[in-house]
Amino acid sequence: MSSLPLDSPPAAAPRAKGWSLSPAMAPYVLISPFVILFAIFGLFPLVFSFYLAFQSWEPTAGLSTMKFVGLENFAFAITDEWFWKSLRNTAWLAFAAGVPQHVVSIPLAYFIHTSFKRTRNMAVGAYFLPYITSTVAISMMFGTLFSTDYGLINITLHAMSEWPGIGWMFPSHPIDWLNRAENVKPAISMVVFWRYVGFNTVLYLAALQTIPKDIYEAATMDGAGRWQQFWYITIPSLKPMIFFGVTLSVVGGLQLFEEPFILTGGRGGTDQAGMTTAMYMYRTAFEFNDFGTASALSWLLFVFVAVLTWLTNLAFKPRGGSH
Amino acid sequence: MHNKTTATHRRNILAGAAAAALLSLVSAGALAQQTLTVAAFPAVDEIAKSAIPMWKKKHPDVEIKVISRAFADHHTAMTTALSTSSNLPDVMVVEYGYVGRFAEGGGLEDLGSAPYNIKAQQARFVPYAYRQATTNAGTVVAVPSDIGPGTLLYRTDLLKKANVTEADMTQSWDAFVASGVKIKAATGAYLVAHARDIKDIVIRSDIKPGEGLYIDNKGKVLVDSPRFVRAFTLAKAVREQKLDGKINAWSNEWSEGFKRGTIATQLSGAWLAGHLNNWLAPDTKGLWRAAQLPEKAYGSWGGSFYTIPKGGKNKALAFEFIQMMTLTPEVQLSAFKSQDAFPALIDVHNDAFFDQPIDFLGGQKARLLWRDASRKIAAVDVNKLDPIAEEIVNTEMDKVLDQGKDIPTALADAKALLERRVRR
Questions:
Q1: Torsion region of B175: left, alpha or beta (phi above 0 gives left; psi -120 to 50 gives alpha)
Q2: Is the pLDDT of residue A99 over 70?
Q3: What is the per-residue pLDDT for B319?
Q4: Distance from CA of residue A308 to its chain's centroid?
Q5: Which chain A residues contact residue B395 at CB under 8 A?
Q6: Which chain B residue has its CA at the smallest distance from A148's CA?
Q7: pLDDT tens-digit profile of B328-367?
Q8: Is B76 within 8 Å of A288 when comparing Cβ atoms?
Q9: For a Cys-Cys bond, which of A21, A96, B138, B235 suits A189, CB 3.0-4.6 Å?
Q10: Mean pLDDT throughout A220-242?
């Protein structure tokens, strides 16, 4: 009986009959579903949108009617006063809805983190609920709440205006939330704030749990109060998460679409006061049949998102020295 | 030799039989599977579905598949289908506001020429509806199905309280506004839901042949013409005298306003009477009446059209279906009775149903009134820039009403904005 020497290479495994995957190709084949799906649903629309931005196209006549127009769509867009108006509206809404989200959610997360024990998950769930609810349902509900004559918000404000002592702080006449230009943006901001404040709270709660308890214990030993601990320990420790949350708010705020679309009946409201750039893009394409300009608008919006994200990055970048 | 020949013969017979069976199966399968797709939006989809039994009597082998989407989604989907020439239905229902846009692209069949020759049936349709489906070049891109003759719906109880008659209100637009002042003083009710409603109908009045709504057929922008000056002036007068509730159509306030009697009149298509009766304010039954619009301003509010996309597959069957829906009196009458779809087909306009009183309108024979209006409405040429023109004019209207912008400046700004688009 003979035996194989120990250092001899193992015999090649018998080849499986039919189709087989070589080890060299396997990684490519295994990641191909993602690549194919990304190419179809991610890359192609991106490239097509870029291509369209340089074309004049009558969409209902088919793809063959595209005509190269160079930078004309961009030139039209940057000299279009509605584009700038929509951009101002978008920036206003992103700021008015975005900043309070963080100003409120950081202390709220800190409060939930330090005050709730067993019921913490329930509290977090309650705040997170608006984020997972359908935007359309929320916007429709708020549309009813904002109703001038029959809405709960105006009814409540009116009731509060009759409170003794502090009643003067509240309006006694109904506020025309969605039909007066100056009220449309605050109304939309309130809905956006209400929707996303819970999401940010969850982000900050997660970050709070990573701060070592002994830092707080040491601070307590040194005589720091809760406010000092919050200001000098919690806020600096949360800085990476604040950067992440603010970046998400900047990107999301500049792409705001559903809430203003539903609340203003898809038209942007009185004097287009609630028309965001994303809405204007959609209307330019599907209502005004100008897909070329709509694509140019989308790329201009991309530039603004990129610049603002870069500025956000700059604002949160550590300056001088090391931590 | 004999055996071999017999075997070959048998094999040939078997092969032939198998082939014949296969062919018959394939052809039977093909016939059984023939489907005509009809893309429509709510109400028209129901009308199409209810006509299926009639279709099946003629074509038991052809299924009708009605693809129903919400109004805006339907037109967005059709735009996408036409742009990519994919997923096109055989029959496409198009609302009046979209006919111009779709016609401009040239993606719809010319139903006026052979083999369709709908031109031969022109006299059977309400004239303005047929004209709406005809492009400036004379191409008939759609067949009208239902129309929306404009009407003035008013609350008879509120008018009575204010001692205002229908004649007081309808003799002129100024008289209409003056009546509103009396109604507001006596009842507290608004004359109209929104001042914009008056602007919308006045800009559609007195349009001359060849003149479009916002842009004429030579590309000239008309938004600073006397029509617009008057429309803006009247709307401003209504707002200044607090005669409108600043209420947008289809909002909560709108339906509540009808329910609670805080809106005295509504300028609209005849179909609104059906909506008020069915769901908007059924409890106000008997309190409403219909009249012609003030100053005999006959106008149209919407309408549905059947079209065939050029990329459609079953064009002959599609046209047969369209003929059934638009030229068959039973179908048109049934749609009128069930969905308040006022017929574009003149053949049925003398049916006894038109003479019947409408309970919701206090027993008024309002259909005769609307029939009269439908014959007098002037056709307005459509332009692919109409949607953006409407947006521009509405935005300037908001500035006049809410920010006190003066009318000549607002209209000049609207003209400049629209001309910029026309030049592209």
A1: alpha
A2: yes
A3: 97
A4: 14
A5: 271-272
A6: B253
A7: 999 999 999 999 999 999 999 999 999 999 999 999 999 9
A8: no
A9: A96
A10: 92
Q: B31 pLDDT exceeds 60?
A: no
Whether cis (ω within 30° of 0) applies to the bond prior to B115 is: yes
B66 in Cβ contact with B40 (< 8 Å): yes
Note the helical H segments in B88-172.
96-105, 127-132, 156-161, 166-170
One-letter amino acid at A215 equals: I
Provide CB contacts within 8 A for B116, sequence distance 6+.
Answer: B109, B110, B319
Distance CA B316, CA B269 (A): 33
Q: CB of B414 within 8 A of CB of B397?
A: no
Lowest mean pLDDT among A68-77, A298-307, B249-258: B249-258
Report the distance separating Cα B140 and Cα B143, nearest Å.
8
Nearest to B130 by CA among B114, B116, B142: B142
Please tell me the pTM assigned to this model: 0.85
Residues of A in contact with B398 (CB under 8 A): 181, 270-271
- pLDDT tens, position by position, B58-73: 999 999 999 999 998 9
A75 reaches B (C-beta below 8 A)? no
Distant-in-sequence, close-in-space partners of A188: CB < 8 Å, separation ≥ 6: A93, A97, A256, A259, A260, A263, A264, A274
pLDDT for residue A247? 95
Examine the predicted complex and report whether its ipTM is higher than 0.85. no
Retrieve residue B190's tokens.
């608004």
Whole-number pLDDT of residue A265:
87
CB < 8 Å from B in window 204-263 of A: none
Give contacts of A144 with chain B, Cβ < 8 Å: 252
- Per-residue pLDDT for B420 more than 50? yes
- For residue A306, which amino acid is it? A
